[in-house]
């Protein structure tokens, strides 16, 4: 394992890396010999992921809604790990509620986690990338930004913002050698989606009937797209949004 870690060439930061899509992304990176730092709030889950992924993986317990702490977090990471080559903004929260029942506080909470924290973390990581004139940032969007989904107003606002931010960041940062792209997962089989869909057969049928491939995706499908964007294969690709959705966003 040690020879592996010596040979590792790049360092990646994955938020929400202890479960779901983030876990699959971190797993793919480690398999490809990328040193991977996962950030999350649940130490138990982070520790379990680290044990599974081995010595190329390390973790930090941090709540990204603590905006004031983000500059110090990134400074510490840079000091400990050197250059951060890849940032994956995967951490996000959702809430399903009828439009008129969503409170200002609930709306703000989702915007804070899904948009403001993504901006603040990206800003600080970019400051460490600029001297090297290189880096790749991958944001995670959703089908909620591709078309209207009922009862997720705050989440939809946040993910639509992420796609706009991706384009804006790409225009600002690509001249400095930092590429910024976005993956928009469709309906992916995770613990979270299983709960939502298995309890709601009508919603599940609707999802599958408008997905031309007729099945849910896997977290590994999303991880492959993120890996592509994060590495040399995508060296001339920036400011794009890639749906990984079995055709769901164009389905009828």
TrEMBL record:
PROSITE patterns from the UniProt entry: ADH_SHORT
GO molecular function terms listed in the Swiss-Prot or TrEMBL record: oxidoreductase activity
Keywords (A to Z) from UniProt: Oxidoreductase
Alphabetical list of SUPFAM superfamilies matching this protein: NAD(P)-binding Rossmann-fold domains
Ranges for domain Ketoreductase: 10-186
Source species, domain of life: Bacteria
Family: Belongs to the short-chain dehydrogenases/reductases (SDR) family.
Protein name as it appears in the record: 3-oxoacyl-ACP reductase
Organism of this sequence: Pontibacter actiniarum
């Amino acid at each position: 394992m040690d020879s592996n870690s010596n040979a590792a060439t790049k360092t990646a930061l994955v938020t929400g890396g202890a479960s779901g899509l983030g876990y699959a992304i971190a797993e793919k990176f480690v398999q490809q010999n990328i040193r991977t730092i996962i950030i999350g709030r649940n130490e138990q889950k982070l520790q379990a992921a680290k044990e599974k992924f081995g010595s190329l993986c390390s973790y930090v317990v941090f709540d990204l809604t603590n905006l004031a702490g983000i500059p110090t977090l990134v400074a510490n990471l840079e000091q400990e790990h050197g250059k951060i080559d890849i940032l994956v903004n995967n951490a996000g929260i959702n809430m399903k509620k009828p439009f008129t029942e969503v409170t200002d506080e609930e709306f703000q909470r989702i915007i804070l986690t899904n948009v403001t924290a993504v901006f603040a973390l990206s800003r600080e990581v970019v400051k460490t990338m600029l001297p090297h004139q290189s880096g790749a940032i991958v944001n995670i969007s959703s089908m909620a930004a591709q078309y209207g989904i009922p009862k997720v107003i705050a989440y939809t606002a946040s993910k639509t913002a992420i796609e706009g931010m991706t384009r804006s960041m790409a225009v600002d940062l690509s001249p400095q050698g930092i590429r910024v792209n976005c993956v928009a997962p469709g309906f992916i089989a995770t613990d979270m989606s299983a709960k939502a869909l298995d309890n709601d057969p009508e919603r599940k049928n609707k999802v599958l009937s408008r997905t031309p491939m007729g099945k849910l995706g896997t977290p590994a499908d999303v991880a492959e797209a993120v890996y592509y964007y994060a590495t040399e294969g995508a060296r001339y690709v920036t400011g794009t949004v890639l749906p990984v959705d079995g055709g769901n966003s164009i389905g009828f």
